[in-house]
Every structure is written in C-alpha cells, then in structure tokens.
Design goal:
There is one protein chain. By secondary structure, the chain is mainly alpha-helical. Helix content is 72%, strand content 7%. The chain is built from ten helices and two strands. A two-stranded antiparallel sheet has the order 1-2. Strand 1 and strand 2 form a beta hairpin. Helix 2 crosses helix 3, helix 6 packs antiparallel against helix 8 and helix 8 runs antiparallel to helix 9. The radius of gyration is 27 Å and the shape is elongated.
C-alpha cells in the first residue's frame, strides 16, 4: 500500500509541473523516509498498522507534499513552464517538415529536366503524382506532426487543452494551403514544377477540410497521449 501511495504521489507531482526526474527522486526519498518512520514507530512498540498511521501523520498529507514540491521553481519541468507553446509548436513542426520536403523536391527537380526530355510520362501518372504530393504534404504530414506532439504531451503530462488548441491551429492553417506538383516528359523538354498557395474563396469547403483533418489528427494524437499517461500510471 505504501509503494502504491508514493507512485501516485509521483504522478501527482508530474501533473503539477515537477520534472520527471525530480518527481521520481522526491517520491523515492519520501518513501524511504516513510519506511524509516515506520521502523522507529515499531521500535517504540507500535503495531504495523499503528506504525503506518504514525508515519503518515509525521510525513504529512499528499496534498501538502505536492504543494511543497510544486512551489519550488527549480524543480519545474521545462515542458510545463512552456505548455502554452503547444498552441504554436505543432504548426512550427509542420512548417519545418513541409519546408524540408519542398527543399528536397527542389533539389531533385534541378537534376531531372534533361532526363525527362527522353521519357514519356502518361497524363494519369502526372495527375497521380500531383495528388500524392498534395496528400503527403497537406494531410499525412500534419497528422504525423500532431501524433508526434500527442506522444510528447503524454510523456510530459501536458493538459489535453493545450494539445487540442495546437492541433486546431495547425489544421486551420494547413486547410487553407494548396500544393501543385507537375511532372511531365517528352518533347518539348521535360518539366517539373511545384507551387504553394493560400485560398479563402471557398471558406465552407475549407472549414470542412479543416474539421476532417482535425479528426484524422486528434484521434490518434489523443489516443497516444492517453496511452503514454496510462503506462506511467501503471508504474512503468
């Protein structure tokens, strides 16, 4: 029972913003001190039940212990201090991955035109590549970024509202973007081009797209956050 109490105390400390390493060390130290108090009480002639009760009273309530550690700024987790950053972090993560993919495409395209001159690419294949690039950059990438931050939020026990706000901002931004990727070959010389743009001409359609994207991102991100928190609750 004593071990269970201090594992729950560790979880409570993490939820109040204490860094994981400090929470584990505090829980271990408190558990050792509690055991020493029990041994002293038993040495005085108390029964095991009485000794446990005496040790609990001497150590203090869980709420008091959590407050004591939570108010020590040097023990605070960086993720907890900057938890509001989760509102923009998914968007910045998406922008980083998106830019990296675009730069990779530019690097590849700079070496292709001469080779494309001797290749015939069917129109359906060109259309399929354009669709694949759009799905990769505007659907799979935001979802993957959201899932990654869901795992991070679970590890750091960040409140779900911060993750939710970040994914909403990300999806609203990504839903306004459009990507065009064209790859052709033959005569005249082959062509590879890409374009990025924003459009607000059809807001209802873009909002529906954003909602669909939120569903794709929030369900796995929320589930993975819950899974990470559950594993720690099970005294991983």
């Amino acid at each position: 029972m004593s071990e269970h109490r201090f594992r729950l105390l560790e979880i409570a400390l993490i939820r109040r913003g204490v860094a994981l390493r400090h929470a584990r060390r505090a829980a271990l130290e408190l558990e050792c001190h509690h055991r020493e108090l029990m041994e002293q009480a038993i040495a005085r002639g108390e029964t095991a039940r009485q000794a446990a009760r005496s040790a609990d009273e001497a150590l203090g309530s869980d709420a008091m212990l959590v407050e004591r550690y939570a108010h020590q700024q040097e023990l605070r987790s960086w993720a907890y201090r900057w938890r509001a950053g989760y509102v923009l972090a998914p968007l910045l993560g998406f922008a980083t991955v998106f830019s990296a993919v675009i730069l990779a495409l530019i690097a590849i395209s700079s070496h292709l035109p001469a080779a494309l001159h001797h290749i015939r690419i069917p129109a359906p294949m060109t259309h399929g590549m354009n669709w694949l690039a759009s799905a990769l950059l505007l659907w799979m990438t935001p979802t993957a970024v959201a899932i990654g931050f869901g795992v991070l939020a679970g590890r750091q026990r960040i409140a779900f509202r911060w993750l939710l706000a970040g994914i909403v901002v990300l999806c609203l931004f990504a839903a306004q973007m459009n990507v065009r990727f064209v790859l052709t070959g033959g005569t005249p010389a082959g062509l590879i081009s890409a374009g990025i743009g924003f459009s607000t001409r059809n807001l209802p359609h873009e909002l529906l797209r954003a909602l669909a994207m939120m569903g794709m991102a929030l369900i796995p991100a929320g589930w993975l956050r819950y899974l990470m928190m559950s594993r720690r609750t099970a005294f991983e």
